[in-house]
Write a structure and sequence with these properties.
heterodimer, A: alpha/beta, GMP Synthetase, Chain A, domain 3, elongated, B: mainly alpha, Ferritin, 67% helix
Amino acid sequence: MTTEENIWKLLEEVPDPEIPVLSIIDLGVVRTVKVHDSGVLIEITSTYSGCPATDVFIADIKSKLAENNIEGVEVKMKFSPAWTTDWLTENGKKKLKEYGIAPPVNEPDKSILFAKPFVVPCPKCNSKSTKMLSQFGSTACKSLYQCNECSEPFDYFKCLK
Amino acid sequence: MNDALISYCLRIGDSTLVLGQRLAEWCSKGPMLEEDIALTNMSLDLFGQSRMLYSYVAELIGDGETEDTLAFQRNEREFFNFLISERPNGHFGETIVRSFFVDAFNFHFYTKLKESKNEVLSAFAEKSLKEVIYHLRHTSQWVIRLGDGTEESKEKVQGSIDSLWPYTEDMFDMSDGDRQLVEEGIAIDLDSIKADWKKTIDDVLAKAKLTLPENAYMHKGSRKGLHSEFLGHLLCEMQYIQRSYPNSEW
């Protein structure tokens, strides 16, 4: 018997293709799971609208459920409400840090120009003395930082609200 | 009613697609690694924004239309992208100024479009606005850095402002269909964002010690599908595979 609870559990085993330490549940992109008479409807959202991982999410969800003999799976995109880093689970933030990516911090100042700098602690040595190298990083969701103490460059998972 | 809506969505989606394609031309040619990545990151966001609207338009048209047929199988006259989005990249400063004018427009436009009565458009605007804030911050900072930089950077970027400014009015052009959609609470009256857009431009240029040209002749036509000579060349490259091997799939 396929239950929604059961599917949520299975989806925890589907990794983000770009940050494999996170599951799509940790990332907060799965919005609804509905079991109905003729199959399953899953609604997901993308983190950034052009994120190439989105198509992979859809394929991986389908194959994970197919492996578990769950048929009639439809995966739909849902754009509203828009994804925010608030939907990253606490567990997800912890895993990010262990993986070497600084999790999003609350950026108080969203002004376009000369926003006040905020502290992004180094995920390696926890120093609060770090600097931004580039606002855009290796994927749409990250910026590039460097630690002033241990000199290690690191990714920062940008705050998106 | 659908025709007006389809055209309105294409106006927005074509502009993000064509600007995204221009930014993608920088891939592996950026002036430094960080900027290469930044320009292509912004490009990716813009492609994503186009996809959201194209998939909606494909649904509205039906009849086998897809995101891909819309992007790869239409001709110049069927594109409604802003004239400024098709301007060639030029030097790095020129690319930045072009994006800066458009980002500032999109920032104010999406802020209003979030209130659209059309759910797809409001969801699109809500999502895209978050991305555009990063873009506008990035391009504004570069305009200031280049304008208030060396003698050479200032001269170059001022030249870009002078040559691109005449294509900005075109972004605010509206069709009769657009005005009808404004009445229905779906589209945004672009006259209502013009003052805010201009203020954003003025504030940044003041900090950059740059000026806008006076009494410039303003080019228009893209709302009707009339383009400059550059769009055809861009489409040639972008559509090459689909034109050579129609309907091929990955």
